[in-house]
Structure formats: C-alpha cells, structure tokens
UniProtKB/TrEMBL annotation:
This is gibberellin 2beta-dioxygenase. Belongs to the iron/ascorbate-dependent oxidoreductase family. GA2OX subfamily. InterPro entries: DIOX_N, IPNS-like_FE2OG_OXY, IPNS-like_sf, Iron_ascorbate_oxido_reductase, Oxoglu/Fe-dep_dioxygenase_dom. Pfam families: 2OG-FeII_Oxy, DIOX_N. Its EC number is 1.14.11.13. Its cofactor is L-ascorbate.
Length: 325
C-alpha cells in the first residue's frame, strides 16, 4: 500500500554503482517517477517499506531451507527439473551450468509430486501459496505505479497479465553453496552460481537471506561493469523482464544480472517471475511508439517467446530476435 504524504515531487537520476531504492511509503507521485527512472536507467531497483508481512517471508524462507537441507536422494525425487522441479548445477536444456541447486515451481499450478514427503506437502503448499499471493500483489502494485509513471491511459496494462488466472508466473528457490576460505574449495571464490542473463518475463521480485552474491550489469558505468547488490533480507529487488522491455518498446530495459558464489555462508534467494498467460500477445504499447522511438519489436505470443527462449542458451540476448523489421 502506498501511503500518501505531502512532500513535493522530486526527480532522481541514478549514477554509477548506486542501486535505486524505492520507498513504497512515500507519496505515490514520487514512487511512480522514481520507478520509471530506475527502470529506464537500470531495469533494477530495491523496494523498501512494502506491505508483505514478515511472517509470510519468514515461513517461505524456513520451508525453503528445510527442503535444501534434505538428503540429495530425497531432493532428487522432485527432479530432474524439466523445466519445473528440483535441479542441481544444470540450468535449462542447453548445457548451462552453475554452482546452484534449485526448485522451480509454477505459481498457479499444483506442486510437482514428491517435492517433499507426504506429511509436509500440505504445509509446504500453503506457505508457497501465501507467499506467491503476497508477492504477486506487490508486483501488481509496482506495475500499476509504473504504468501511471509512464502516463499510460490503461494503468492495468501490465498488472492485468500477472493477475490473470492463467498467468504463467513461476517461483524459484535458488540455493548457493558457501566456500570455506581455509580449504581447497577456495577455488569456488568468485565462481558463477547462476550465469549472466536477463529474465524473460514481465517483472521479477527477488529476496534473499542476508548473504551477498547478486550482481547487475550496469548500463550507466563502463561497458561490462558488474555492480554487486548489497543484500537486504527485508527488501525486495525488482528486475524489468524482456516482456516489459518489449511492451514499453525498449524504453524500460531488462537488466542483465548474475549470482556469484562469493561468501562464507550459503545463500538462498526466493524469486517470483511474473509472466503473462501463454496465449497473451506481447506488443509495444501504441503510446510507447513515437517518432523519436519508432516501433522496435514485432508482436509475439508469450508461448512463442518461451519456445524460443528454451531453444537458446541462458545468456542469449533473445529479445533481439523479435526486432520489428
Ligand atoms: C532465466 C530466468 C528464470 O530463472 C527461468 C530460467 C529458465 C529455466 O531455468 O528453466 C531458463 C532461463 C530462465 C532463460 C533461458 C532458458 C530458460 C533456462 C534457459 C537456459 C525459470 C526463466 O523463465 O528463464
């Protein structure tokens, strides 16, 4: 919920390695403008003072950690990820790998069978459903502020796709190993947990325990410069996805990011990917096409985009294949 205050609207631009922070308790107009600026410059920002209750987050983290603490053979019963389910080291179907184990779930469907033993199945599902419900609401609130900030007439243009009961949204739990600096796993330092990529969906909301590892590729610093994102377990980190870049005709940028194994402690991130229904058409919104910014992407369905993305490597700049000619 956005609390209305009487502070005057100020615009903020971001430079260098500063991560934009959006305070959702500030005046609506401020939040709208700052979200647009952050999405244009970085495609990434941190949200504080959101309305997701601590206990919803804490329960999600607890069941996630409990899952990863299980013996490998038990976790493997929920795998191999295809693409949903438990996966270890292998990411996607085309040979990408990383120092990570994960659980990938559909946000609208039943959990894959055998994720956890029978007696915990109901509790696990309830916790996931409650978390997904809250985080989806936050995603929609952000998307509506964004649409207002962009001056769109239909302020639910983006959020409607995520609220749709057929929305193809996902929840991913990533568990990254720690390294012991006195031991031979010293060579894990700086190893890639999850390689460079952009998220394909509309919007991503990520939170993690207080362990570092996430990095974003900053477009406003020298080419190829990785900016570490300081962990903040109370906040959510928001990424613009490829579908939002396409709908805004390239005005908002889908941020390239990666996760490194750089810490003495294990890191767990919980990531909600807000995606459109499979049959939804993704096209640049007419208001985003101007003489200064002519049409950049052709129309495509989410199902067509997904098919393409699963045929490519993780780091592929897949949106380029959908350029308007
Ligand atoms: C990256 C973002 C999400 O984690 C994900 C990933 C998906 C997968 O792990 O199944 C993909 C990857 C992601 C993009 C390219 C393809 C598909 C692995 C891969 C190599 C769940 C998603 O939606 O796209």
């Amino acid at each position: 919920m956005v609390v209305v205050s009487t502070t005057p609207v100020q615009s903020k631009r971001y430079i260098g390695t500063e991560i934009p922070v959006i305070d959702l308790s500030c005046r609506r107009e401020i939040a709208q403008e700052e979200i647009v600026n952050a999405c244009e410059e970085y495609g990434f920002f941190k949200v504080i003072n959101h309305a997701i209750p601590n206990d919803v987050v804490a329960k999600m983290e607890a069941v996630g950690l409990e899952f990863f603490a299980k013996p490998v053979t038990e976790k493997q019963q929920a795998g191999p990820a295809n693409p949903l389910g438990y996966g270890c080291k292998s990411i996607g179907p085309n040979g990408d790998t990383g120092e990570v184990e994960y659980l990938l779930l559909h946000a609208n469907q039943q959990l894959p069978a055998k994720i956890i033993c029978e007696e915990n199945q109901i509790e696990f599902s309830c916790v996931v459903m409650e978390y997904v419900g809250s985080v989806k609401e936050l995603a929609c609130e952000i998307l509506e502020l964004l649409a207002q900030g962009l001056g769109l007439e239909d302020t639910e243009t983006f959020s409607r796709l995520i609220r749709d009961i057929e929305s193809d949204s996902l929840l991913r739990l990533n568990h990254y190993p720690s390294y012991n600096c006195n031991k031979e796993d010293n060579n894990k330092v700086g190893r890639v947990g999850f390689g460079e990529h952009s998220d394909p969906q509309i919007i991503t909301l990520l939170r993690s325990n207080g362990v570092a590892g996430l990095q974003i590729l900053s477009p406003s610093t020298d080419a190829g410069s990785w900016v570490p994102v300081p962990p903040d377990p109370a906040a959510f980190f928001v990424n613009v996805g490829d579908a939002l870049q396409a709908m805004t005709n390239g005005r908002l940028v889908s941020v390239r990011h990666r996760a490194m194994v750089t810490s003495y402690a294990t890191r767990m991130s919980t990531v909600f990917f807000g995606g459109p229904p499979l049959h939804a058409w993704i096209s640049p919104i007419p208001e985003m096409i101007t003489t200064q910014r002519p049409r950049r992407y052709r129309s495509f369905t989410w199902s067509e985009f997904k098919k393409m993305m699963y045929s490519l490597r993780l780091g592929h700049n897949r949106l380029e294949l959908f350029r308007f000619k």
